[in-house]
Structure formats: structure tokens, C-alpha cells
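REVIEWER CHECKLIST
Item 1: Sequence provided? yes
Item 2: Single chain? yes
Item 3: Sequence as submitted:
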Amino acid sequence: MSHFVKIAFAIGAMLLAGQAATAQDFRASEVRGGIFAHSADEPGNFFGVFNTERLQDVNVELLFDTPGLTDWVTLGELRPHVGATLNAGGLESMVYAGVSWTVPVFDTPVFVEGTFGGAVHNGNTNGTAIAPARDLGCSVLFRESASIGVQMTENASIMATIEHASNANLCNGNRGLTNMGIRLGWKF
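Item 4: Structure as written out by the authors:
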């Protein structure tokens, strides 16, 4: 069974476990896209923290409304997502899926968001990666991210995002991959 199929089954089981949403309840609600610095945890030229020379990833993400899923939380909203972070420099790219939890900060246009899910990547898994490539140990990884953003209009938002993917020491080799950048969102 392919890694893509395993992730799809895991996400599907997670969504179906808590609700029986009808097909009309499950719909695309927002698209996001932006640019990330690849392996942003490598020392860089921006105060020794952020390596601007690694701005080589493009991120795109689609979020979905599932009203029954948001019933699980009293603050904010839970939405399933699918996305991809694609590297233009020949390093690791990944496709991912999971659940996003978006929480408004008081009565302001500011929001924070955390996500958790899984990813499949095209990076090295056999311990022979040569820097700047990373040995990620497994083809299927856990993926989580955090964002802080501003809802600029009813439809448009901007957010700073950091994403991390690793195998949680379940496979040999676990360098992990941390990307960081800025994204724009558009709600339908």
C-alpha cells in the first residue's frame, strides 16, 4: 500500500470517527499560498537565525469546512487541510494532510493556528543525505505547524507560518525538516 494511501486512510478515519458529515457539509473554505525558507533551522544571515538564502519553497494549502468537526472545540474552528510544500532548489518537497485549529485572539483580526497531520516527502531515508539535504528516516512523517496571522478583510488574511516534519524517532535517522515563511489566505 502506498504512503499516500496510508495517509489518506488515517486522515479519513480521524474525520469519520467523530462525525457523520453529509457531503454537502464538507466543502472547500479557504486557499492559502506563500513562500518559505527551506530548513530554516540552519543558521543564517538574518541575525544568525533565519537563512534568507533558503527562500526556495512554495507552499499551497486548501482548507475545508466540516461543521461537525468544529463542534469538538469551544474556541475557534477545526478544519481539515491538504497541502504541499515544494522546493525549487532540488531539496525535499512534501505533500501533507491534517487538521487545523484556528483561534481568534480576543475581539481582534489577529488569529493563531496550530495544525497536526502527516506528510509524504521525496527526501532521503537511507542515511546517505549530503548537506544541505536531510536524512528524514521514513517516507511518511508527522507534520505540524504554527501560524500567527491577521484577517485583513472578510476574505483575505496574511500569516507567518513555521512547519516541521519528522518521524518522532520511529525510524533510523530523524533530522526533521523545519520551514518558515509567509502566506496569504483567501476564504471562499
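Item 5: Key structural point noted by reviewer: The first strand starts at residue 27 and ends at 37.
Item 6: Recommendation: ____
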